[in-house]
Design goal:
about 80 residues; about 55% helix; about 0% strand; mainly alpha
């Protein structure tokens, strides 16, 4: 059996792989190592006058990114909030 090369997988592919192969501790560790290497992104300082707006914008951005990723993975899932 050949060894899986996690380095050639995108973040999404690696995440999907370890979710489907939950017993593969090496895949899970590779994913954790990858995401922990990224610098933390500071969204806002609590003293910013527009703190709430920055937080809400960051949440919207994350939700939109997640929604876009899920529609790429499956065209059969319909978004109940989408109106034509």
């Amino acid at each position: 059996m050949s060894r899986v090369n996690y380095d050639v997988m995108s973040d999404a592919q690696l995440k999907d792989y370890f979710l489907k192969h939950r017993g593969d501790q090496a895949a899970f560790q590779a994913y954790l190592d990858r995401i922990n290497q990224r610098p933390l992104r500071i969204i806002a300082n609590p003293n910013d006058p527009d703190f709430d707006e920055k937080i809400q914008a960051a949440i919207r951005q994350k939700l939109e990114a997640a929604r876009g990723q899920s529609t790429e993975q499956s065209n059969t899932v319909l978004d109940p909030t989408h109106q034509d």
